[in-house]
Specification:
Layout: E1 2-4, H1 7-12, H2 14-18, H3 21-26, E2 30-35, E3 40-43, H4 44-77
Parallel strand pairs: 1-2
Antiparallel strand pairs: 2-3
């Protein structure tokens, strides 16, 4: 069985939907949402993986920018 969840609700309820493993064990259930770029369906697990990856990339980039700013400030203080 496929269950298609609208995008806003998919993001809001993603943690709850991912924990519905007991439902998925008893019945073949797969959650989908709309991929607005391709106008097709995408598995909610793929959306979750993509969001985790993007968050990690954003966090790493932010930390790198902070380190660079600190080094630049420290370097300009020594001149």
């Amino acid at each position: 069985m496929w269950i298609v969840v609208p995008n806003p609700q998919a993001v809001i309820y993603l943690p709850l939907l991912r924990t519905r493993r007991e439902l998925r064990r008893r019945h073949y259930v797969e959650f989908y949402t709309l991929d607005v770029t391709s106008r097709g369906l995408v598995r909610l697990t793929d959306v979750a993986s993509s969001l985790v990856k993007k968050r990690k990339e954003t966090t790493e980039a932010s930390e790198e920018a902070k380190r660079h700013a600190a080094l630049t400030a420290k370097d300009s203080d020594t001149h």
